Amino acid sequence: MVFSVTILGSNSALPTSERYPTAQLLNVAERFYLIDCGEGTQMQLRRNKIKFTKINHIFISHLHGDHLFGLMGLISTLGLMGRQADLHLFAHVDLERLYRPHLDYFCADLPFKVVFHAIDPHQWLIIHEDDKVMVTSVPLRHRIATCGFLFTEKIGLPNIRKSCIEQYELSIAEIVKIKNGADLRLDDGTIVPNDDLIVRSHLPRSYAFCSDTKYIPSLGEKLKGIDLLYHEATFTDAEKDLAKKTGHSTARQAAMVAKQAEVGKLIIGHFSSRYKQTDVYLEQAREVFPLTEIAGEGCVFEVAVKPGIF
Amino acid sequence: MVFSVTILGSNSALPTSERYPTAQLLNVAERFYLIDCGEGTQMQLRRNKIKFTKINHIFISHLHGDHLFGLMGLISTLGLMGRQADLHLFAHVDLERLYRPHLDYFCADLPFKVVFHAIDPHQWLIIHEDDKVMVTSVPLRHRIATCGFLFTEKIGLPNIRKSCIEQYELSIAEIVKIKNGADLRLDDGTIVPNDDLIVRSHLPRSYAFCSDTKYIPSLGEKLKGIDLLYHEATFTDAEKDLAKKTGHSTARQAAMVAKQAEVGKLIIGHFSSRYKQTDVYLEQAREVFPLTEIAGEGCVFEVAVKPGIF
């Protein structure tokens, strides 16, 4: 079962001819979650041959144009394509106030419903949950209210080891309890721990998207052990002061968060258009955290299945 | 002195990975006029190495998203680039009502003024005039109020033939009058026509942009003799009924307008995304009007200087 992130846009506010503003697609077992939606996202979806119809949830980190100016175009196109399923938009409360009049005017005949979900970007809160993922808001520090998103895979209930069913002659009721996390108490009072009774298909995988933010020294601790971290890296060491002033991070700072969090892999992006190449970003990040990659347009970062406890 | 049109986007509502929604740039002696502004226009401007700062006037044919969803991104980018000169937007009156709240929210610190000019798309009216061009609205017939734009080059006052100045011993006052179109009355009552006294640098060149419209049989007569005509051609003969139903034209109908108007060249665009290739469009248009070209992304159509009357 796939768990992957496709980069649709990697640049900061000023797009170049090659790099688009922020947008990413998370694919969890062929359920698609769009994260930010900069101008040109729908063209990038096409370029990457991603089926628009599989997107039911869009998460907007903050209301700066380079993270959402592709929304109207995408929604309009989904309408022309005859979409019927509800589309869920998670964003700051102001998005609905601003975009509802545009939807009413430009997409009057939309054959589906756009459902706005107001999120509080200042809190760590579960903002969405379905059978594939749980999404938590990650408060960040930018010039305006901004949050990232932590996606944690949901893998369903574990199976009971066949040998245990036979050995302990488990009833249906006991099996249900054990699947839901209970230990087993034997007649002689011995406790068999849940982990000894079950087989998980794999451990839940996780991805955190940390959109525009200044360096937050405590962030790594809160994102401990996630598999894949995207952290913005608008600037290099040379513009450290500018980063702080504008509410952004350097590549090195992104790597410091990744190192502290002991993530499986770090992706950096949201590059300032003053840089034609991204070599400097990568070099400076890798000095701190070697497992760093560049969020290049069209790059796909897949998290492999992690065997569970058998 | 250049008079050219660069195609930035040629597709209809659903962009493909190769063809963007409608946007064009008219260059008149290095003064740039943007015509429609579909999503991705700013990326296309960069791709074509066009200097954003030279755009002072934007003309929006109608308020369908594929003709304007690139506006906010472009304006936002112009702000980040530090633009200071006013930016003039010509469009249906609803544009200001819809976009002012977005400008106030997303571009609060814009270092320049966005000046909205409400146009009446139902009238042939001069909507803008400067020292380079005169722009006239061209009423079209689409599903919503829509107009095209006729750009007519202004070439300044003509020069007086040197030989005439000597022969008729013209005073400064007489020269000014003749430059402004007056004939010359000699002492014996003879009239020397203005055209015999002056030298024009060249004849004014013209470009008409006919955005989304169903076929208007009388349109060609009204655009008689223009040099370059863009006429939408969303469909081919096979979808003639669909064209009528959706307020669009076929390639053949676009060519019929061009033929009637006896234009120098026809450009067709706004292609339905059902067509991967544009061969069929070109073939059917050229059967009626051979001087037809496809509005391909990045194509530049230049109108050569036409010698005046010497």
Automatic annotation (TrEMBL), chains A, B:
Q: Binding positions for Zn(2+) 1?
A: H62, H64, H142, D212
Q: State the UniProt keywords alphabetically.
A: Endonuclease, Hydrolase, Metal-binding, Nuclease, tRNA processing, Zinc
Boundaries of every Metallo-beta-lactamase domain copy: 205-271
Stored CDD domains: RNaseZ_ZiPD-like_MBL-fold
Under the subunit heading, UniProt states: Homodimer.
Q: What does this protein do?
A: Zinc phosphodiesterase, which displays some tRNA 3'-processing endonuclease activity. Probably involved in tRNA maturation, by removing a 3'-trailer from precursor tRNA.
Q: What is this protein called?
A: Ribonuclease Z
